[in-house]
Every structure is written in C-alpha cells, then in structure tokens.
Design brief:
mainly alpha; 0% strand
Length: 219
C-alpha cells in the first residue's frame, strides 16, 4: 500500500492539477480554508467517489480472471474501465486518466505482474485496482489508498499554486483522514451505478484549464 500511494510512483500525477489551477487563478480557492472545503466537498460529492466504489467490483473481476481466465471476466473489466472513463466530462481529464493508467500498467508489468493483455490500456482507476490486486491489498486498503492519494496529489498542486506551505498541507491532509476512512468504509459496499455526483464546478474548472493565459500544470 505504501508503494502504491507513494508520490514517487512514476505515473506523472504531479503534473496535473485537475482544474485546481483554474480555480486558484479565478480566486475561487485562495487560502487554506477554501482549499480544505474544496477537497472535503469532492470527497463527499465528487466523481472520485464513483471511481473509489468501483474498486471492489474491479477486484472481483480480476480475481475471477486470475482463477480461470474467463472471457466474461475480462469483458467485465473492460466494461468497467470504459464506464469509469466515460464518467469524466472533460476530455482533458480523460487524457490524464489514460496516460496515468498506461504508466502504472507498464510499471506493474516490469515488476512482474501477469495481468491480461487487455489491461495494458486501462485508465487510472482501473489500473489502480490492478495495482491493489498485484500487491494483494484488501479492498478497503485499495479504496482508502485511492482517496488518500488523490488528496495528497491535490495538496501537492496547491503548494505550488498558492501561498500554502508543506506544514499547512499536512494539516489539511491530517484533518481529512477521518473523512477518507469513513468514506472508504461506506464506499466498500456501494454500487457506483447507484451513486450520484454533484461536482459541476470541478467539471467546469477542468474544461476551462486549457484556456488559462499561463499554466503551470498540464491541461
């Protein structure tokens, strides 16, 4: 789990802000408090929840595939990957998900995984599930790690975009640990097809990022 959530994981996540840069430049997020509230809102209502809750179903399909390599299990994995990618309204985020997923799958292959050929082009959420399967993490660890890693990456972007020091970022991360834990436990038994999202603002920010006059992060 420590290796999977490590910021040193060579997938390029550090180069994306997922719309945070646009929000900061527009003054919608301008201090430690507004950044905290943004992260909290995404954990409670964002698309990140659907990706996290899908991890249990991805894991079930991976285990079926590993036991008998059934074609229907592989087809189910591909279906989950397509659905999760289609959830993202911004083509910029979809490109990010595909790039990071491909990088993680290449890493797992070099580490000795024997995952099906179809997984090599998986997007980030599905690739994360493959990583959890490769390291034999529990479903709860995979979900909790996914949420924790997302928050950590957003805070890393925040440090480079606004007057926010590493200590303040760690305070925010620490303040969100309980929410990450409780959300992970709840999402463990939730069907993502039955969850709702309310993060239109995130979609607008992600879609508008490439229109910024100057950009530190990839759009």
């Amino acid at each position: 789990m420590l290796q999977l959530v490590s910021p040193a994981l060579p997938v390029g996540g550090f180069s994306y802000s997922e719309g945070l840069e646009w929000q900061i430049q527009k003054g919608k997020i301008n201090n430690e408090s507004t950044l905290y509230e943004w992260l909290k809102a995404e954990l409670l209502r964002g698309q990140i929840r659907l990706e996290a809750s899908a991890q249990s179903f991805i894991r079930d399909s991976l285990e079926k595939c590993h036991r008998n390599n059934k074609k229907d299990a592989i087809a189910n994995l591909v279906e989950w990957d397509n659905w999760l990618l289609a959830l993202r309204d911004s083509d910029k985020i979809r490109d990010q998900q595909k790039q990071m997923g491909k990088s993680l799958m290449q890493l797992l292959e070099k580490l000795g995984s024997s995952l099906p050929e179809e997984t090599k082009k998986f997007s980030w959420p599905s690739a994360w599930g493959c990583g959890g399967f490769f390291w034999q993490l529990s479903k709860l660890e995979v979900i909790e790690g996914y949420l924790y890693s997302w928050v950590a990456n957003q805070l890393s972007a925040g440090i480079r975009l606004m007057p926010l020091g590493p200590t303040e970022a760690q305070q925010i991360q620490y303040s969100l640990l309980y929410l990450i834990e409780t959300e992970a436990k709840e999402l463990l038994t939730k069907n993502p097809h039955q969850l709702w999202t309310g993060d239109v603002g995130a979609t607008i920010a992600q879609s508008s990022h490439s229109e910024l006059y100057s950009r530190l992060f990839r759009s």
